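Most newcomers find our protein records easier to grasp once they have seen one. There is nothing in a record beyond a sequence line and a structure line. Getting from the letters to the tokens is the skill we practise here. An example says more than a description, so a record of this kind follows:
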Amino acid sequence: MTNRRRLAIALCVAIAVLVCAGLGYEKKCLAERHIFATVSQARAQAQRLQHQILLRSKALVPAGVPFSSALERLGVSPKTSAGVTTSAASVFDFRDFRAGNLLEVSRNILGDLREVRYRIDPSRVLLVSPRDGGFHSEVTKIPSRTETVGIRGRVEDSLFAAVTGAGEKPELAMRLADIFGWDLDFYTDTRPGDIFRVAVEKIIQPDGEFAGYGRILAAEYDNDGQIYRAVLFHDPAGHPAYYTPAGKSLKKAFLHSPLKFAAPITSHFSYSRYHPILKRYRPHLGIDYGAPTGTPVQTIGDGRVIFAARKGEDGNLVKIQHTNGYVTYYMHLSRILVHAGEHVEQGQRIGLVGMTGLATGPHLDFRIERHGVFLNFQRLPLPPSEPVAAAQMTAFMAARDIELAEMPPLAPEPALASNTPAIPAPAK
């Protein structure tokens, strides 16, 4: 073989080696680029997930806990909680921050706050989220629909137990007590076997979750054979109000009791009662309701507070001036929640039951006088409010017939306490 041929072969081999080496390097580069791209994508995905995946903590607001403290109980730092609270105050009145409402805090997986949600009521929510180094707050409407539902239940123990036994929330019992509170005392007047029926709006969220009650359109309470009925209409001022099917107002100038769910009467009105502490007979010109310390006390009618302080044997006393010469007294309170000169509305909480002053145990001593003469509240006819005006009677009767038809039947099957769907209201 000639030298030239040997050189040519060597050159070809060298070229082949170089080509193979080049191909291997290119494959290596391609592999490395692929690995780098994969790692970069994974890193970017991880960073997105850190911000996109939210961990939620939620709880019902405890009684007596302010907004900032409730946030801290859900793990928000005091500094962040202060910033959220300051921002929220620009759009939300914290007097509407109520126990039992839902508070929710959302964070990413790194623990950074992403959103605070507070359910103000069934139709509104407070939203607070980080923005531009601070926080942005807004109150928005909750998308929902409204359904009218008929509910029926039988009382064996209490109205509360009957309502919850029918699968409903205690709020509905409170609402019914408010409607019939001028005629019935749901502590002392209820009897085993009493029946309630109600047509009420339920607010339903898009996911089907119950969000709260809307209007009670009609209600009935059979109290040991005495039947009370209520239908919703508007009063002369255009405000929602409840009337009997005949158009008489259920609202009276005074409530039936100074306690929403009145307690047992431990001492009646008397001109000669033996006093357990003084050990002698003397007049007791009021009614004693035995109730635990802290039980809320409500004013029985609209009026103006003319005294709210401690007064000798009466202990902590609230005295309210009403129309037509009536004055009511609320004695032995553990706490006073109003001040002299304040105007109060019927049913407003004015104090808490206690045993201040001359008292052997916690109770409310309630008294009423007119033109300086004390009256026996148990025998006092409660003056009514105005009935439906004659000019509105046709519209009232049309609304009454529709609302009463939406209540459940008297004898549902198979269970006594049940929910019966009625005519759905238009979706909101």
In short: The domain at 265-379 is CATH 2.70.70.10 (Glucose Permease (Domain IIA)). The chain has three domains: 54-141, 145-252+386-421, 265-379.
